[in-house]
Amino acid sequence: MTNEFDNPFSQLNRNLREVPPEMRQKVMNDIAIAKLILDMAVLVTSNYSSIISGMFKTNKRK
Questions:
Q1: Which of 1, 5, 20, 22 has the smallest C-beta neighbourhood within 10 Å, fewest atoms?
Q2: SS3 labels along 1-62
Q3: Distance CA 22, CA 45 (A)
Q4: The whole model's pTM is what?
């Protein structure tokens, strides 16, 4: 027999509480910083494959 406390999905129907504005702002700032770091990492590493393939190419002289 399972009751309401055994099923974690039964808790999804409960009312949610409002998040304090300062905590919401902190989470949004953390997400913005993580996105900035991710974008910078993509910008820095996006050309590595073309640089490495360019190093191994040989130019055929005619």
A1: 1
A2: CCCCCCCHHHHHHCCCCCCCHHHHHHHHHHHHHHHHHHHHHHHHHCCHHHHHHHHHCCCCCC
A3: 35
A4: 0.51
Q: Give pLDDT tens digits for 12-58.
A: 777 778 889 999 999 999 999 999 999 988 888 777 777 777 778 76
What are the angstrom distances between the C-alpha of 59 and each of 34, 51, 56, 62?
Answer: 41, 15, 10, 9
Whether the CB-CB separation of 4 and 10 falls below 8 Å is answered with yes
Structure tokens at 35: 């996105």
Confidence of residue 7 (pLDDT cuts 50, 70, 90): confident
